[in-house]
Amino acid sequence: MADQQGYGLLKGKKGLIFGALDERSIAWRIALACQREGAEFSLSNAPVALRFGELDDLAEETGAKVIPCDVSNEEDVEELMQKVKEEHGKIDFMLHAIGMSPNVRKNKGYEELNYQWMQKTLDISAVSLHKVIRYADEADILNDGASILALSYIGAQRIFSKYSDMNDAKALLESIARNYGSRLADRGIRVNTISQAPTKTSAGSGIKGFDGMYTFAEKIAPLGNPSADECADYCVTLFSDLTRKVTMQNLYHDGGFVTAGIDEEMINDLAEMYADEDE
Ligand SMILES: NC(=O)c1ccc[n+]([C@@H]2O[C@H](COP(=O)([O-])OP(=O)(O)OC[C@H]3O[C@@H](n4cnc5c(N)ncnc54)[C@H](O)[C@@H]3O)[C@@H](O)[C@H]2O)c1
């Protein structure tokens, strides 16, 4: 992790951060890292999360304004962008760290999805990226060269059974990032997703079998699972001017998990476990 002083990578930059709920939230850690690097920003979350979460504490700590917005409500998103305009004029970065699946919450397996809930999952966790970019663009608040990031998960590419319809939502999220990235590139605006390893947050822990997924990834990834603070450091580089030509990418931040094949220790344990059966 960068030291308390930071590197001044976001000095003079302004942004909008969605998805900080409590201090474990990845967006919360990202907001602190952005502040450390010299950025000013507004924070947004759904009204219900503002009632039950602790966002005011983060706002106080970072001097940020909190602007409520339920991203499943198009008018809310449109209004939010007007308020951001009043607050900052134009912005240089935007973080989408929003995910929610009623099917996962209520433990509905993939073969028995409730389709109304699935629509919610896709709307809140993926289509919302399209909405926030569209209405930010329509309000003309995106500076040329701005950087937009959304948080994804490797369930978009590989099968993680417990992640249910969130796997589909992440695949759509990554596709929207690519498609919008191609349309904003003429203004130097970048749109990327970061595919973060399992992280112990409120959304993460809400997935049945999360501890097993976390431990499996931790064992397979040569560098181990990155923390939310390490994810925040990576996001800072992508919001900064040091990555001006990185766009339309899904960038793995997973300690090497996506490329790793086997873990020797795990193989040895398995060999020992099944040794009796082979005899
Ligand atoms: N925790 C993990 O293991 C992990 C791994 C990879 C990617 N991610 C992704 O990171 C992002 C942040 O999740 P997190 O793990 O920090 O959990 P979190 O629960 O702290 O954050 C999820 C946020 O989404 C917000 N949200 C839900 N519905 C909303 C709505 N209708 N309008 C506006 N906001 C809404 C919640 O209020 C919450 O702040 C999500 O996209 C998640 O899928 C998480």
Instruction: Calculate Rg over CA atoms.
Output: 19 Å
Strand content: 5-15%
Enumerate the spans where pLDDT stays under 50 for 5 or more consecutive residues. none
Main beta sheet? 7 strands, parallel
Mean pLDDT value: 95
Catalytic activity: a 2,3-saturated acyl-[ACP] + NAD(+) = a (2E)-enoyl-[ACP] + NADH + H(+)
Active site: 153, 163
GO biological process, one term: fatty acid biosynthetic process
GO molecular function: enoyl-[acyl-carrier-protein] reductase (NADH) activity
What does this structure look like?
Belongs to the short-chain dehydrogenases/reductases (SDR) family. FabI subfamily. It is an enzyme of class 1 (oxidoreductase). There is one protein chain. With about 280 residues, the chain is of the alpha/beta class. It has a single domain (about 15-279), classed as NAD(P)-binding Rossmann-like Domain (Rossmann fold, 3-Layer(aba) Sandwich), CATH 3.40.50. Helix content is about 45%, strand content about 15%. It has twelve helices and seven strands. The chain has helices at about 25-35, 45-50, 55-60, 75-90, 100-105, 115-140, 165-185, 200-205, 210-220, 230-240, 265-275, 275-279; strands at about 15-20, 40-45, 65, 90-95, 140-150, 190-195, 250-255. It has a seven-stranded parallel β-sheet with strand order 3-2-1-4-5-6-7, with helices on both faces. Strand 1 (about 15-20), helix 1 (about 25-35) and strand 2 (about 40-45) form a beta-alpha-beta unit. Helix 1 (about 25-35) packs across helix 10 (about 230-240), helix 4 (about 75-90) runs parallel beside helix 6 (about 115-140) and helix 6 runs parallel beside helix 7. The longest helix has 24 residues, at about 115-140. The mean pLDDT is about 95. The chain binds nicotinamide-adenine-dinucleotide (NAD). Nicotinamide-adenine-dinucleotide binds near residues 27, 72, 98, 202 and 203.
